[in-house]
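Changelog note: in this version the structure field was regenerated for every chain. One regenerated record is shown below for reference.
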Amino acid sequence: MLGRMARIVEGLARGEDGVVRCSWAGSDPLYLRYHDREWGFPVDEDRRLFEKICLEGFQAGLSWLTILRKRENFRAAFRGFEPRAVARFGARDVSRLLADKGIVRHRGKIESTINNARRARELADERGSLAAFFWSFEPPASDRPKRLSWPVLLRMPKTGASVALSKALKQRGWSFVGPTTAYAFMQAMGLVNDHIEGCAIRERAERARTRFRRPR
């Protein structure tokens, strides 16, 4: 995956297009678009937030690129990850999903997604929106490293904020939402900006976070 990239420093690489990025983005066009346009940019749409927390659960034990390549199949299989629609899934839907070669056919993760859709509806009723709930766990600037670097990120598979988010979700009956999964979700949805210092996308993501109106 790094064949067409030139490493600059640990955690950064220059692609064949000349752009310096976080090296985890590799050279796959799909992954590059995800890194440049989605990862780290703030999201306040409940459907997208629900989709992401579910897909992070499906990723457990796999690479995110594997899930990303199947994302459109997941969206079709799970009715666009609309919580109200998924919450109505029953035993026939589980059987249908277990036979769907386009997704990850793991019974526990499939049943977890259906359960979490029901819990998501309850949570939205409780807090007004999923966005209001999730963004209440955005860590303060004082809890973030002053300078992000690859070794720092390797030591941060979970944080105090992700532990708190995981605990709050589990208390409400959610599953497949451990602290590491919660932190990956926070990184992807822009609750934190973990683009490496020197990545061309870091400042763009930070500007988006500055302009973003936090849901209440």
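Spot check on this record: The two ends are 41 Å apart (CA to CA). Residues 149-155 have pLDDT under 50 and may be disordered.
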